[in-house]
Amino acid sequence: MPKYVYDFIEGDRSRADLLGGKGANLAEMTRLGLPVPPGFTVTTDACRAYLATGAPPAGLYEEVNAHLREVEARLDRWLGDPRDPLLLAVRSGGRYSMPGMMETILDIGLNDATVAGLAARTGEERFAWDSYRRLIQMFGRTVHGIPAEEFEHELAAVRATAGPGGPSAEQLRDLVDTYKKIFARHVGHDFPQAPHEQLFLAVRAVFSSWHSERARVYRRQERIPDDLGTAVNVMAMVFGNLGPDSGTGVAFTRDPATGAPGVYGDYLTDAQGEDVVAGIRNTVPLTELARLDPVSFHRLREIMATLERHYRDLCDVEFTIERGRLWMLQTRVGKRTPAAAFVIAAQLAEEGLITADEALTRVTGAQLAQLAFPAFDPTGAPEPLAVGVGASPGAAVGRVVFDSAAAAAATGPVILVRPETTPDDLPGMIAAAGVLTSRGGKTSHAAVVARGMGRTCVCGADALRIDVERGEFRVGDRVVPAGELISIDGTSGRIWLGEVPVQPSPVARYLAGELRPESDPLVAAVHRLLTHADAVRTLGVRANADTPEDARRARRLGAAGIGLCRTEHMFLGERRELVERLILADDPAELRAALDALLPLQRADFVGLLAAMDGLPVTVRLLDPPLHEFLPPLAELTARVARAQARGEDPGRDATLLAAVRRMHETNPMLGLRGVRLGLVVPGLFAMQVRALAEAAAQRLRAGGDPRPEIMVPLVGDVRELAAVRDEARRVLAELDGAPEIPIGTMVETPRAALTAGEIAGEASFFSFGTNDLTQTTWAFSRDDVEGSFFPAYLARGIFGVSPFESVDTAGVGRLVRLAVAEGRAARPELTVGVCGEHGGDPDSIAFFAAAGLDYVSCSPYRVPVARLAAGRAAV
Ligand code: ADP
Ligand code: MG
Ligand code: MG
Question: Do 565 and 545 contact (CB within 8 A), yes or no?
């Protein structure tokens, strides 16, 4: 019989797959001797079995009962005992944290008999009845899907008639009666009185909550697999709502927004944990606890120091104080903003808690990319409309919306404005540029979820009176309706009417060489980690750049050369006419003349590029796109010719162009006359480009420079194509003096090139994988056509976890890459191998390219720092 239930003292943090993150960490805290209420975890295995069959696996209930008896014996308190009942919390918790996305049911074990026992033990009759009504509501919602509003409505009515001290015990008892009626009306039978039945129904409901809509949406967003299932943690209840010497809170060992050291958190007196996360009442800062209950505060700080040393990372905790006694209900390595991730990793390395290599694994390329986003200019900003809590950094400008539907329907950027958020607001949070709430602190739902998604968030702006129904909010007598433009600053918490200008972030300025590393703690951390990444990485990072300006920018950002210069970008603008001449040429002399006119222009382009990248390789790709891309579009020409004819004029050149466009029309241009094929059918085209590059290099040499040009042939499928271009290039180079040696290599961007890489390497000094085309040709996807049409459906159905154009498809395209590297290097050991598709700037793809043994990646200039960091991570 498989084991489905683990007592907290049996597990540990390494077993999160089986016990879920929450269960594994509760076990770890128990092992560390920290004050955790006793309990046990039902495994994710049991959940998967349940979800597969719709029934709990055989023997599960017996196993749960056996563990329950141990807990009862330890506490000397029994589930269902009418004099002094044990109450249970039944809590979800999967492998990966999904805050608030699945279900938790508290106060299991209360019924008409035990409620009196609870009142007697605690001396709090009101509390006992309040707990009972909470149970009926949570149980009703979670197990039977009864809308929370049905209960909330009644609760509000009772609160309205209650005195200043809140509802009396009698009122709450009557409310329980009302709740039971609501329950019976919805479900068709009475609220179950048998505590064990409550427990098992709750366990099943938690299992099922894995498949709730909001959990699915969250998993898709966070790329968490759909088939893991959740564990269920069953543990003794402790009560934070037993009066002023009780309470509950959430805390972080460092500030999760900035990474600044020092315990940080929110506390709520006389409350249950759910009240904090829901942001229902405004919390006080944790430091207040030092005044309210210094003993518990001190103990909490000790525990948090222990946890941070033990986990060697930022931890967050949920805790509850029951009548002066501290209990730990949860811990995990805490979510944090990108800025905090860098600052904390650098600090922990400095403190010697982790190594520099480990520090690199604590940050991601995606986080670095986010930090380079612009921020509001604090000097140019007007008086803010209001100030809330900066909960997730960033500068967001957008139109006010009040719900998910409006956020999803909007065309431009929006700010989702809510009193507080619940998991139902998740689609709106995903769609919005920023989130603004009037209630809740840095640990409220809005704050936690926004930080996880990298969404800008300001919460707890209590000057805002938000009226979702009317679709407006007020600050003083100022009314802000839906659709109004506002700006929110997730760092300072400031909120402005209208659009506030943004300025480059300090990290972007540092990366561009405009700020010194020691200028602030975040920049210092980025500097430290990037420097280490550069020291350990084996993968080179080049940039894709076509102009001297891009090349210089790339170089400042740390690029070690150009991996792809697209020469087609040099054929645009005023040169279009020359290109048209080239295309329309109908005899060799005409063609020659057109090429001769282009030559000096190309040469000047290359001189500038080689100068900007002096001493570093510059890989120039010969002309790649179909020639008709340089002509005006068919529709436009047709209209122009028709208009001229209608006016009785001679369409002249337009008629010639139109004829050419018609002649050159292709049904599948992506698979047509382009790349190396052009070079082979348009005499002299590639020769002109080779000559321009060689003459440019010679000119740079004469000027005392150190040019390192390389020639790259696109879209090769057969070695003979490459050999033909190489022969032609060699002939051109042989005629020139004073040019340096120019390596000639090829792109590998067709499956056939990859499959015959051994042969092709015989003619190539280097390979550069063009993973955009290789992805298109391997999948038979036309990127421009598929991304907007069926990709969303494929992503939703889980056929892709992520678009293969975003992260390289390692199983298919990646297999071709590995094969080509192996066979290419076998044929030519000194073969240099790089990648120049957009994947070269994608951190996940970079990890793959490093593992596949590539020499370098080439990406757009602004991704260069991201690639440096990702390459460093791949090396440790
Ligand atoms: P989530 O994963 O959504 O945070 P939890 O399982 O942590 O859900 O439960 C939600 C809240 O219920 C917690 O914030 C906690 O304060 C409260 N809670 C959980 N376990 C107990 C317990 N044993 N006693 C009292 N309150 C609890
Ligand atoms: Mg929790
Ligand atoms: Mg290509």
Answer: yes
Q: State CA 719 to chain mean position distance.
A: 41
In angstroms, what is the span from residue 671 Cα to ligand 3's centroid? 11
Nearest residue CA, atom 24 of ligand 1? 237
What is the pLDDT confidence band of residue 491, given thresholds at 50, 70 and 90?
Answer: confident
* CB 462 within 8 Å of CB 486: no
Closest ligand (CA of 138):
1
- Report residue 184 as tokens: 């019976």
Atom of ligand 1 nearest to the CA of 91: 6
Say which residue the tokens 């049911």 belong to: 105
Ligand nearest to the CA of 277: 1
pLDDT digits (tens, 9 = 90+) for 839-866: 999 999 999 999 999 999 999 888 899 9
Q: Which helix (H) or strand (E) holds 298?
A: helix 294-311
**Ligand 1: nearest atom to the Cα of 277:** 14
Mean pLDDT of the 350-362 span: 97
**CA–centroid distance, residue 770 to ligand 3 (Å):** 5
- Token pair of 431 as six digits: 């769609």
pLDDT digits (tens, 9 = 90+) for 774-814: 999 999 998 878 876 788 788 778 898 888 998 999 999 99
**Ligand 1 atom closest to 273 (CA):** 16
The verdict on ipTM greater than 0.90 is yes
User: Which phi and psi (to 5°) does residue 557 adopt?
Assistant: -85, 0
414-418 vs 434-437, strand pairing mode: parallel
Residues lining ion ligand 3 (Cβ < 5 A) are 749, 770, 773
Residues annotated as part of the active site = 445, 836
Question: And the tokens for 418?
Answer: 């809510």
pLDDT the model gives residue 684? 94
- Domains annotated for the chain, with CATH where assigned, are 5-236 (3.30.1490.20), 247-336 (3.30.470.20), 375-503 (3.50.30.10), 537-626+666-875 (3.20.20.60), 634-665 (no CATH)
Query: If we measure between CA atoms, which residue out of 533, 539, 534 comes closest to residue 849?
Result: 539
DSSP letter string, 690-724 = HHHHHHHHHHHHHTT---EEEEEE-S--SHHHHHH
Chain segment 808-826, per-residue pLDDT in tens: 999 999 999 999 999 999 9
The CA 92 to ligand 2 mean position distance, Å, reads 9
- Among 130, 134, 214, 318, say which to mutate for ligand 1: greatest number of ligand atoms within 8 Å of CB: 318
In the chain, count of helices (H) and strands (E)? 36, 33
pLDDT value at residue 276: 65
Residue list, ligand 1 pocket, CB within 6 Å: 37, 89, 91, 99-100, 104, 106, 235, 237-238, 248, 272-274, 277, 318, 320, 329-330
Q: What is the mean pLDDT of the chain?
A: 93
Tens digit of each residue's pLDDT (9 = 90 or more) over 207-264 = 999 999 889 888 987 889 999 999 999 999 999 999 999 999 999 999 999 999 888 8
Ligand 2 centroid to Cα of residue 348, in Å, is 25
Per the listing, tokens 């000047």 go with: 604
In whole angstroms, what is the distance from residue 461 CA to residue 536 CA? Answer: 45
Burial of 829 (0-12, 13-18, 19+ CB in 10 A): exposed
* DSSP summary character for residue 569: G
- Calculate how far, in angstroms, residue 330's C-alpha sits from the geometric centre of ligand 2: 6
Give the H/E segment covering residue 306.
helix 294-311
Say if residues 465 and 385 touch (Cβ distance below 8 Å). no
CA distance 78 to 196: 11
| Closest to 746 measured CA to CA, from 728, 762, 735, 732 | 762
Amino acid (1-letter code) at residue 659: A
| Ligand 1 nearest atom to the CA of residue 97, by list position | 2
Q: Give residue-wise pLDDT tens across range 599-629.
A: 999 999 999 999 999 999 999 999 999 888 8
Question: 44: alpha, beta or left, given left = phi > 0 and alpha = psi -120 to 50?
Answer: alpha
Is residue 500 helix, strand or coil? Answer: coil
